[in-house]
Amino acid sequence: MSFLPDFGIFTMGMWSVGLGAIGAAVTGIVLANTDLFLSKPEKATLEFLEEIELKTLGTEQRTFKARELWQKNGAVIMAVRRPG
User: Fold this and answer.
1) Do 72 and 49 share a structural domain?
2) In whole angstroms, what is the distance from residue 53 CA to residue 75 CA?
3) Tally of domains within the chain
4) pLDDT tens, residue by residue, 36-60
């Protein structure tokens, strides 16, 4: 007759928790470093870019449509969408 408790169920539980933690870590690393489950970005059309309102950053506050940039001369445009 032994007074020591049976650690079999405890050991099985620790293995389950350990494997779950490893699985969660691997899943987190894969999702953080790949774009497997992200939607693909749409390409901006010229019509969409023409209608964007731009604001100046200097002391003179001015708002204008983006098409004004290339009405008289050519322009190189880089569109960046910031979250928020």
Assistant:
1) yes
2) 16
3) 2
4) 888 887 787 888 888 888 888 888 8
The residue type of 61 is: Q
CA–CA separation, 64 vs 55, rounded Å? 7
Residue 26 belongs to some domain of the structure: yes
**Same domain, yes or no: 56 and 79:** yes
In this prediction, residue 12 has a pLDDT band, given cuts at 50, 70 and 90, of confident
Residue 21 main-chain phi, psi, to 5 deg: -65, -40
Residues 42 and 56 sit within 8 Å (Cβ to Cβ):
no
pLDDT classification of 18: cutoffs 50, 70, 90:
very high
Spatial distance between the Cα atoms of 63 and 55, rounded to a whole number of angstroms: 5
HSE-CB for 27 with a 13 A CA cutoff: 7
The reported pTM is: 0.42
